[in-house]
Amino acid sequence: MTENNPYPSVPYQQPGQHPQPYQAGPHPPPYGYQPMYVQAPPTSGYATASLVMGILGILGGWCAFGIPCFLAVILGHVALSETKNGRKGGHGMAIAGLILGYIVAIPALLIAIFAFGGATLDSTP
């Protein structure tokens, strides 16, 4: 193309040479075609928080009295109910947060029951 000619130039052809056949552009996709780049639903904030609290609980839950683990369990159950219908993503993160939370929360709860619960049952007035 030149500045004066707005139309694309035709490639030079030798005399006696047949013109190039017309090649059509890309065809539209077939009916019902789903592209591979479908946008995923937004991730649930509760699922992310549950996973973060579960990791914090595993790493330092023993020095924080298991509070991050209990938060991971609560937030994980909220996230599971939020991601159940598929409008929000993060179902796997919610399950991972629940598992990490329960790994420390259940033994902490059992230790608390046996350590403090037994002392109150044995004390007779």
TrEMBL record:
Segments for region (Disordered): 1-28
Organism taxonomic ancestry: Bacteria, Bacillati, Actinomycetota, Actinomycetes, Streptosporangiales
Pfam family name, one: DUF4190
Domain DUF4190: from-to ranges: 46-107
Comp. bias intervals (Low complexity): 11-25
Full protein name: DUF4190 domain-containing protein
Originating organism: Sphaerimonospora thailandensis
Keywords: Membrane, Transmembrane, Transmembrane helix
Transmembrane spans: 51-80, 92-116
